[in-house]
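FAQ: What does the model actually see?

It sees only this:
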Amino acid sequence: MHFSPSSFNFKYKMSQPVLEVRGLSKRFGEISAVANLDLTIYPGDVYGFIGPNGAGKTTTIRMILGLIHSDAGEVKIFGYDLKRDYRRALSEIGALVESPAFYPFLSGYRNLRLFGDLSRRVSRERIFQVLELVGLSRRAHHRVRGYSQGMRQRLGIALALLHQPKLLILDEPTNGLDPQGIREVRNLIRRISQEEKITIFLSSHLLGEMEKVCNRVGIIYRGRLIAEGDVDELLGKEQDWVEVQVQDTESAQRFLKEKFPGLNPEIKKAGWLEFKKQDRDLAEINQALVRAGFKVFSIYPHRRTLEDLFVELTGESADVY
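And it is asked to produce this:
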C-alpha cells in the first residue's frame, strides 16, 4: 500500500504550484541529458521523480537549484522565475543533493550549528528540533565519524530542514543504505510531510519505495518525462489485475485463452500468469483450471505497480526496482 497524505496535500490543487518546470533542456556535448522537460508540483505534494540511474534526475535537480545552467526552458519556484529572481526563488528551499558531507570530528549538533551560521543564525532550539525530527537527538553530541550511513543521510535531511523551508528537495536520499536505513528514511519523509507540512520533491530509482510514500509521481526516461500524475490515477485504485501461480504455465495460458475468450493472460515470470480482471469470476477460473488437470498454487487480484507501469511505457526494467 502506498502512503496517502492528508487532505492538506490535495486541497490546494487549483492554487499556484510550488514548483513549475517548463521546457527544461540540457546537453553535455553530444549527449542530451534532459530534453524539453515539464513538471508541476503542488503545495503539500510528496512528489516522486523516478527513473533509472542516468535518466536525468540529478541533472534536473541541479538545474532547478541553479547549480548548473539549463540550455533552454524555465523554472518557477513559488511563482518566482529562477533566472530573473534567483534569491527569492531559492529562499524557501531546503535541499539534499547526493551524499551529504560533514566534518567527521565534530558532533552532529556542531555540524548543524556551523553550517546553519554560514547563512543565517539558527537557534539552539531549532537545531534540537530537527535532530529530534530525524531521530538523532540521542546522538546529537556524538562525533559524525561514528554515525552509520543512514544516520548521516538523516543528518543531511536535518541540515536541509534547518531554516524551515516550504519545499524540500531530496536527490536519491536512500542511496547506499541497507533495508533498515531505507525504511528509516521512508518513515522520516512521511513524518516531515505530516508534521512539518512541507512540500517534498523526491528523486529515486527505487520504484517500490516511491509507491509507498508519494501521492504524485513523474517518470523520466532517457531525459524525457513519459508520465506524470497522481499515483492512484496512474495505477488505478482497484485491484484490477490477477496473478495466477500455476504448474505448466504455457499450457495453462493456452487453455485460458480458449476457455475464456478475451482474457489474454500473459506469462509474467516463470510459473506465473497475469491478466486483467475485467469483472471475471476468479472462482470460476480457478475451478476451470483445476478441472482441466492444472495445479493452481495461488490466484489473487492486485493493483499494478509503478514497475509494471514503467515496463509498460518503456519495455524495460533495468536498474529500476
